[in-house]
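User: Predict the complex with zinc ion.
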Amino acid sequence: MSTVHAWGAAKAGAPLAPMTIERRAPGPHDVVLEVLFCGVCHSDIHQVRDEWTGGLFPMVPGHEVVGRVIARGSEATKFELGALAGVGCMVDSCRQCGPCHDHEEQFCEAGSALTYNGTEMDRKTPTFGGYSTQLVVAEDFAVRIPDGLDPAAAAPLLCAGITTYSPLRQWKVKAGDRVGVIGLGGLGHMAVKLAVSMGAAVTVFSTSASKEADARRLGATGFVVTTPEALGALAGRFDFLLDTVSAEHDYNAFLNLLRPRGAMVLVGAPATAAPVHPFSLIMGSRILAGSAIGGIAETQEMLDHCAAHGIVSDIELIPIQQINAAYERVLKSDVRYRFVIDVSTLRDPAA
Ligand code: NAP
Ligand code: ZN
Ligand code: ZN
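Assistant: Here is the predicted structure with zinc ion placed in the model:
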């Protein structure tokens, strides 16, 4: 065991503050990462505020981790010492059930071990995330960061990237498809870049008129400030919609944008339920679905796709000391477009 520096919430809703946590000695198949960068996902905020309920405290968030392999177990062969590795939302799973065999560890029947706000597969040992100087993880749950990707800007790919790549792939978005991305935050801006890289014609639906120039720079050809009139004028125009919005909003107005048999996939995870009118789905035989992150193999595929297309996140790099202020800016939809923590700022215990 080793004691490492971290920042976390002592209890639900508490501001993040310095703390120490214990990391296990690496087992034979583990790698030890010196954490370099960790993205700030809106899910971190939902969870430290316990908006989804059932949170485990103290909680050290962070599931967009890029680190350097500084030690490895006796049988760990996936990474050379000094290699860059990424860790997303999961650190383990049962590895035996149907979904695990199908490389969809996010659906593990035993429940995968979440990177934080969860437990290891012993179901006792709490997990702590990437707002910390070191992470010990089974090598199978760490992914390679391809050469050529800036490590800080690649960190958000580990959650925002895979969460938007997976539904675009699963729903077979292809060149020429008319795709709408709802909400231009961390997930939304990755969705735009990835859908554009797949050849889709992308329109951004946003509540922030000030984001139009950025949306177009990211590759969107359409930008709509979300009002009932604007949405009404676009009825039936879209093949696929990806909803990344973090707060409660009206799904019906967006479903009406779909062509017959078109699909809208929810990745945004507001804590509250919003009504869906049956006729929003019946008319046009439309589809409403959800999507949860992606498997480990698919995460590697996404990283390789990003390397091939030169895609990383647009980031604001912050010292950990600014994390509580950064959360407030995320809540005001004022992040351009992902905060990433420079984890070297945690190493000084006096900081
Ligand atoms: P984010 O950076 O805060 O982006 C969310 C965006 O939603 C905002 O930038 C804003 O975009 C829009 N928005 C916020 N409040 C709104 C409101 N009241 N009405 C309409 N639009 C609003 O958050 P994120 O990190 O991308 O995460 C987005 C959501 O996805 C969160 O709920 C997160 O927990 C969830 N998530 C899900 C998964 C999964 O596996 N399904 C994985 C990761 C995250 P505009 O300014 O453009 O309107
Ligand atoms: Zn996330
Ligand atoms: Zn399993």
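Residues 296-309 form the longest helix (14 residues).
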